[in-house]
Design a protein that fits this description.
The chain is of the alpha/beta class. It is about 45% helix and about 15% strand. Strands 3-4-14-9-10-13 form a six-stranded mixed beta sheet, sandwiched between helices. Strands 8-5-6-7-15 form a five-stranded parallel beta sheet, sandwiched between helices. The protein has a two-stranded antiparallel sheet with strand order 1-2. The structure holds pyridoxal-5'-phosphate.
């Protein structure tokens, strides 16, 4: 069955997977969604016998139907290789009555690697398929992890350049050091004096600026996006939910067909949306547990049916979830609106004009698969300390938000069904918050001293990604106002 992609905001002609990947965002401002969600092609039992790469092919080939087997397998082999520090790619750790799906074994030790190690390959294959010979310029706004993971993926990939914008004062020191030391002649990093939403809004505006688009085309460039709205990121993320289920089945922890919960620390709603698609493919997932930090727009949305970003933006120790506009939620909105693009467009226009919208009662009724809650800073810190003291397992602050919300869910419902918690970053990426959750005495140490403390305390190896940046020179130091981002892009590309 051929799967095409159409916009959430218009009934224009659908495009192929490779075209959707190349374009990133639909020209009408909507996100690309598959015309149908394909079903898993093999039984769960059969899937449980596959390697990560084989499973990736099973899942991704159902969505990316205009890729040949050779093309897609080539992309998968180049992505999920020794860049990951385990052949399992996404191992499952059973701790304290839950299963942590560790998505941080890639090049930049955060879950963004799961998709961004393959996106550049999907994109260059897509360009070739569509006879696109302009140079692809990836513009990305990052709340910390995407930027580095995207650069690691695109660095020195021929025919591409990547420009990353990050909030100068909204990422952790290690996240910043990871970005500003990025190598690769085609990578550019720009700090902005604003928050992540400012950066993301400005990037979206550039995508929709016809004048800028024309200037770029003249100069031989084509904008694309590596943000989590790209279909080429969403689809690879479905794979690890299927893999987690397959692993549980292989290990005899569940019976074939038994439902599990997926608990996901959420920001832009990309990761959890992949689990939702997984469920629609037939993966036995019961609840999709959406965990927020103090920026609990999504929790409020699930509780009230009102999405309202008009609130204070709170900087937390889980910066990759400090987000007030969860872009990928639009795909869910479209779905629960009965694939009514007019309704979806109306709500998204209200969000952009008033910063808020309310869904209908009919739409709310279709949110039964989801449970939303949030964790305060204090609660997340307590979870890190509690689980570490009990089991010796150290989790990062994002994962701690999810683990806390899972505890709240169990306390509220008494539901003891097996749960997989998406563990989205290595604790080594956030040493300060992690160590200070254990003891305030660590406050006076530097982030890199804390790396050694963490290593001493847990006995886990310091990841290569951290060793590399300890002494690496800063290669990027540009900082601009959010308003000056288009000028910075033109300057970088040498457009007058
Ligand atoms: C990006 C990120 C998240 C949030 O994922 P979304 O897909 O944006 O919801 C959570 N944790 C970490 C560590 C991340 O990098």
């Amino acid at each position: 069955m051929e799967i095409l992609y159409k916009s959430t905001r218009g009934n224009k002609e659908a495009v192929t997977a490779s075209q959707a990947i190349l374009q990133g965002l639909s020209p009408d401002g909507g996100l690309f969604v598959p015309t149908a969600v394909p079903k898993l092609k093999k039984s769960l039992k059969e899937l449980s016998e596959l390697s990560y790469q084989e499973l990736a092919y099973e899942v991704m080939s159902s969505f990316l139907t205009d890729f040949t087997e050779e093309e897609l397998k080539g992309c998968i082999q180049r992505a999920y290789d020794s860049k990951f520090d385990t052949t399992e790619i996404a191992p499952l750790a059973e701790k304290d009555g839950a299963y942590y799906l560790e998505l941080f074994h890639g090049a930049t030790i955060a879950f963004k690697d799961m998709a961004l190690s393959i996106l550049p390959h999907l994109m260059t294959v897509s360009a070739k398929k569509n006879h696109e010979d302009r140079e692809i310029v990836i513009l990305t706004a990052t709340s910390g992890d995407t930027g580095k993971a995207a650069m690691a993926g695109f660095a020195d990939v021929p025919g591409t350049r990547i420009i990353v914008f990050y909030p100068k004062h909204g990422v952790s020191p290690i996240q910043e050091k990871q970005m500003v030391t990025q190598k690769g002649a085609n990578t550019y990093v720009v700090g902005i004096t604003g928050n992540f939403d400012d950066a993301q809004t400005a990037v979206k505006k550039m995508f929709h600026d016809p004048k800028l688009g024309e200037e770029l085309a003249q100069a031989g460039f084509l904008f694309s996006s590596a943000n989590s709205i790209n279909v080429g990121r969403l689809v690879p993320q479905i794979v690890y939910y299927v893999y987690a289920y397959a692993t549980l089945l292989r290990q005899g922890k569940i019976q074939e067909g038994e439902k599990i919960h997926a608990v996901v620390p959420t920001g832009n709603f990309g990761n959890i949306l992949a689990a939702y698609y997984g469920k629609q493919m037939g993966l036995p997932i019961d609840k999709l547990i959406c965990a927020s930090n103090d920026n609990k727009v999504l929790y409020d949305f699930f509780s009230t049916g009102v999405y309202d970003k008009n609130r204070e933006f709170i900087l937390t120790t889980s910066p990759s979830m400090d987000i007030l506009i969860s872009s990928n939620l639009e795909r869910l909105i479209y779905r629960i609106a009965g694939e009514d693009s007019e309704k979806c467009k109306e709500l998204m226009e209200a969000l952009s004009a008033q910063g808020k919208y309310e869904i209908t009662a009919d739409m709310r009724e279709q949110l039964g698969d989801f449970y939303g809650n949030y964790a305060t800073e204090e609660e997340a810190g307590q979870t890190i300390a509690r689980v570490f003291r009990k089991t010796g397992y150290m989790m990062d602050p994002h994962t701690a938000v999810a683990a806390t919300v899972y505890e709240k869910y169990k306390a509220q419902t008494g539901d003891e069904r097996i749960a997989v918690i998406a563990s989205t970053a290595s604790p080594y990426k956030f040493t300060r918050s992690v160590m200070c959750s254990l003891d305030s005495k660590y406050e006076t140490m530097s982030d890199f001293e804390l790396v050694d403390e963490l290593n001493r305390l847990t006995g886990t190896a310091v990841p290569r990604a951290i060793e590399e940046i300890r002494t690496a020179p800063v290669l990027h130091d540009r900082v601009v106002d959010a308003a000056d981002m288009p000028a910075a892009v033109k300057d970088i590309l040498g457009i007058k």
